[in-house]
Amino acid sequence: MQVQGSVMPGYRIYEYMLILNPHEELRNRITTVREEFNTRYKIEKGVGFKSNLGIASFMEYEMKEESILKKLRAVALGFAPFKVELKDFGSFPSHTVYINVTSRVPVQHLVTAVKTAIQAWTKLNKETKPHFFQDPHITVAMKLKPWQYEKAWLEYSQTHFTGRFIADSMLILKRQEGTKSWQIVERLDFQNMYVPATKQGDLFS
Hints:
The chain is α+β, with helices and mostly antiparallel strands. The two termini are 28 Å apart. Helices cover 28% and strands 30% of the residues.
């Protein structure tokens, strides 16, 4: 994700990712699938995906981080843990192969809750807008060349994969603009607690 348009000089800008993180055994299996794909179809090293499920991504000034975290904490506080089911592979013709998320509805509910909470706070400018992952999936490879996609999809459309995990929290990650290394900002546990409706005055806190 890259900054587009004009920004305020002298302020640090970070790229943020909000994710669901599978348990270690499933992450390792997904990593193995990705590494085998990369080897078989000559994908360049360092394109760098993690074995996680994306909820949202955005660019924003660091000074707004705490306000955004406050709103995400409120979402997590009121959200119940849920099961995520993975099965086989899908694709976005003609450039991406991914692992299907078959339990889409609870993930989409979370994405909608996050979008409602932070969309107005994560528009760096008119050109650099947040992205909310309304079509849940775990990417295996993207930006494929035509021959890579055609050959890979012929195989992976017939390949089986199953997995599941309990999503009991979400992670917010960040990296400074122009760098590659992500750091964990905070783990936000789903607590299924009653959260009072937001008062109008809170919109500006």
